[in-house]
Structure formats: C-alpha cells, structure tokens
Design brief:
- The chain is mainly alpha-helical.
- The protein is built from 15 helices and no strands.
Length: about 300
C-alpha cells in the first residue's frame, strides 16, 4: 500500500523524478493515476494471498482443551513480559477516554495541517497527556519510566541507520556504485535499457537507496539511454514504477529498521520474506504501466 500511494506529487520518488526530468510533478502524477487505481486492485489480491498464506500457517484457528489452556498461559506470560498487571492497571484511564481520543485527533491535525515540526507536535501531545492523566510528578515519572525502554530503542535504531547512510553517501560510494551499474550493461541492450533497469529496479533500489537511485543512477541511465534513442520519459517512468515497490525493503531507509524493530524481526528475515514478493509485484506493475502507455519498450 505504501508503495502504491507513495506515487503522489508530494511523494519522494515522483518529486525526485520531476526534478531530474525538469517536469511538472502534477502532470507526472496525472499520468500515474490509472496505475495507482490498478495498483489498489493488485494490493487487494496480494492481501488475499497473504491471508491464505497465514491461514495455512494456522492463523484464525481457535485452540480447544489443553491447547487452549496452554495458549492462554502463553498469552498471559507474554502480556506479563510487556507490562505487569499492576502497571497495566495503573495505566488504565477509562474516564479519560474521550479526552485522550480528542487529544490524539488534535495532534494528528497538527501534523497534517500546520507547519509545526513533527517532534514539536508529539512533545506537546505527550506533555498534555501526562498532565491530564497523571496529576502528580511521581505518577508522571512512573508512566515515563514504564515506556522508556521501548521509546529509546527506536531513536537509537534511527541514529545508527543515519550514520550508515551518511558514510555511504558522503564518501561517494553510492555514486561509484551507480556508475558501475551503468558500465556493466552490455551495449546490445542499449535500446532496451529502460526495460533492464525497470526489471531490476527493486534490487538496485535496495542497494542504492532513494536519493542515489534518482539523483545518481537515473540521470546516468537517461544519458546513456539517449545515445541509443531511448526517450528520457520512458526511462524515468520505467525506473520509477519498478523501484517504488522496494521502498520498504531497502536498508537505506530508516522506516525499514523501524518496521523491523516494531515487528521484532531481523533485517535479514524481513528481506528474505518480503523482497522476492515485492519484486514480483514490481514486474506486474511494470506490465500494467506498459499496457497503460506510461512507457514503451
């Protein structure tokens, strides 16, 4: 879903493509609108496939007898590991549910309709929530301490991924990899260069990351493709459509590490499970884009 709906005028891939092509992003988006409609259908079919896959693994089965007792004990143990019954009771605020709901909507409104920095909106919401729900400094400190471990893990992951990206981009390694990819493409494939890069867009995008892909590889690919008569628009569209399905499986995006942390899985597990399926979806999307006339072979 993120890959499909990321093809918007304010989305990173479309905006970057517009800069490279010196084109109006709204016009690019209008071309991509039919593909987004088809993409939503693909999404529903893929969700059904994932549902069937999970059912085969036992999702939705209601355990009975001794199995149910063991299941309940496991659930209770997992809840105890996350939050003790005393702490869980302490956090309950049934009389504040409407206030907390409205506060959540207000913070979302700040994120969507104002220019307040994201961290500023969240800090404001946290301060108001603590004051309204916990009236003593001791209770506020206890609530913060209970969630400190979870809250601090994600920033450390994001900081580490930022250092990783900084080393790769500032040392010129990304640009060198883009030039290497162009150099290894056989001359015989020159007239079909957009097909080659569209086909391999997901693994290439995983390796290079968004900025290096669009600002490093795409201009080089357009330049080489023009020597073989490939239209820059065709090249850009093929590489944009193909790459976007790799947005959540690239080690160059902080969201990838965030998703792994929230799901409690390793990056290797995520790539092994997701990357092949998303690559196939990118081929299907490319075929749909070809039939819709967004680019030509």
């Amino acid at each position: 879903a993120m890959s499909i709906m990321n093809l918007l005028p304010w989305g990173g891939p479309v905006a970057r493509t517009g800069v490279v092509l010196n084109a109006d992003v709204n016009e690019l988006w209008q071309e991509l609108l039919p593909l987004q409609g088809v993409g939503l259908i693909i999404l529903l079919i893929f969700a059904g496939y994932m549902g069937l896959l999970e059912k085969r693994r036992g999702a939705g089965l209601v355990p009975t007898g001794k199995a149910a007792q063991l299941h309940d004990e496991d659930d209770e143990q997992s809840h105890d590991d996350d939050l003790s019954s005393e702490d869980a009771e302490f956090m309950k605020r049934p009389k504040m549910i409407w206030f907390n709901g409205l506060l959540t909507l207000f913070v979302i409104g700040l994120l969507c309709f104002t220019k307040i920095p994201l961290y500023g909106a969240f800090m404001f919401g946290l301060a108001v929530a603590l004051i309204a729900n916990f009236h003593s400094a001791k209770d506020q400190a206890r609530a913060i301490k209970m969630h400190a471990a979870t809250a601090l893990t994600m920033p450390m992951i994001l900081l580490a991924s930022g250092v990783f990206l900084g080393v790769l981009s500032k040392t010129g390694m990304m640009k060198a990899m883009a030039q290497m990819l162009i150099a290894i493409v056989p001359a015989a494939l020159g007239p079909h260069l957009q097909d080659v890069f569209g086909f391999f867009a997901v693994p290439i995008g995983m390796m290079l990351g968004t900025d290096s892909y669009f600002f490093g590889l795409l201009p080089l690919a357009i330049g080489v493709g023009q020597q073989f008569g490939v239209d820059p628009h065709n090249m850009a569209m093929a590489m944009l459509i193909g790459k976007n399905y790799g947005v959540m499986v690239t080690p160059h995006a902080a969201t990838t590490f965030l998703a792994c942390g929230l799901a409690g899985i390793s990056l290797k597990e995520m790539l092994t499970f997701c990357a092949p399926r998303l690559w196939v979806l990118s081929w299907i999307s490319l075929a749909c884009g070809l039939m819709l006339g967004l680019f030509h072979l």
